[in-house]
Amino acid sequence: KKDIPAANFIIHEIHCSRNLEVCSYCSESIPKSEMKNHIESEHVQVTCKCRMKMESSLLKDHQASACPLRPALCQFCDIPLTFNKLQDHEVYCGARTETCGGCGHNVLVKDLKEHPRVCG
């Protein structure tokens, strides 16, 4: 996708029509010799471990940011979980108590970061 001088445009157009093809899935111009590989690597349907189907080119982003089975860490205990189990775990984990070393009171784990401001 670049500017072509008017004097060369017809030759350029002939060259492109012989050598390039527009992908019917993504509308990108792809060399004809690479079209089969492009479709197989970018547009073939795959199934994620969460059973969602999508184009293979979208799988990496899905697994990193949208998949309910993507890895996640509990903010309180750093245990690795799947994202779909994280919220229930953090509710339980944050409701545990630990004894404050400064004042000796039992403090909810979810409140430990704020506790030093009100401690003792």
From TrEMBL:
Pfam families to which the protein is assigned, alphabetical: TRAFD1-XIAF1_ZnF
Residue ranges occupied by any TRAFD1/XAF1 zinc finger domain in the UniProt entry: 78-120
A GO CC annotation given for this chain: mitochondrion
One GO term (biological process): negative regulation of innate immune response
A GO MF label: zinc ion binding
Residue ranges that the Swiss-Prot or TrEMBL entry lists as coiled coil: none
Tree of life domain: Eukaryota
Keywords: Acetylation, Metal-binding, Phosphoprotein, Zinc, Zinc-finger
Annotated function: Negative feedback regulator that controls excessive innate immune responses. Regulates both Toll-like receptor 4 (TLR4) and DDX58/RIG1-like helicases (RLH) pathways. May inhibit the LTR pathway by direct interaction with TRAF6 and attenuation of NF-kappa-B activation. May negatively regulate the RLH pathway downstream from MAVS and upstream of NF-kappa-B and IRF3.
Record's protein name: TRAF-type zinc finger domain-containing protein 1
Gene that this sequence comes from: Trafd1_0
